[in-house]
Fold:
Amino acid sequence: MTTEQGTTLYDPAPPKKAGQRRRPPKKGKRQPTLATRLDDPTTDWSDTAVRWYGGRTRTVRLATGTAIWYHRGKPPVAIRWVVVTDPEGKFRTQALLSTNPELTPLQIVEWFVQRWQLEVTFEEARAHLGIETQRQWSDRAILRTTPTLFGVFSLVTLFVHQLLQGQDLPVRQAAWYTKERLTFSDTLAFVRQHLWPATISWMSPEEPDMVKIPSDLLTRLTDALAYAA
Structure:
């Protein structure tokens, strides 16, 4: 799936004629570009309600059709194209291509919207859990650790959901950066703050080597380390 409006598309190749000896064509007549379909009065548009970013439902205007994508030296590919416009003019027009022509325009658009959640998950897991920075030499080790790290991502999310019990988690702010939404770094720090004070072993000595510090200082240190770890 892509968002390139300048992609050259064609009709399906015409059927081979009886007695034809030359190599059959791989594509048919060239179709109008997706950009030109915006101003084409014959383009069939439909207003459709789709699941949009942020869990909202939004009405967008869709035009769709099937075509053949072909590049010299590569086999032709049947696709379904969808042009998405906003009746309110709040986001730029996009063209989406799917290599499954059987999909509906609604499925293609909603799957494209969902890809943002996947990209954010990969980025957060890469930044905070070390995905793509593992130092293994074998493919089997990579196949083991990568799903494990994604599992840790899910466990952290579930832990926070259980600990909060429906309450809001305060979002950490900075003087130079106002963050409106909760991120994985906030949830990971919240889990660390709850796990670190727990007793690691019941076999600790009766008189451990310790230094007493004020609880407020301990809280500040824990908060700082939870984000820096």
Residues 139-198+212-228 form one domain. The chain has four helices and five strands. Residues 1-5 have pLDDT under 50 and may be disordered. The chain has two domains: 22-116, 139-198+212-228.
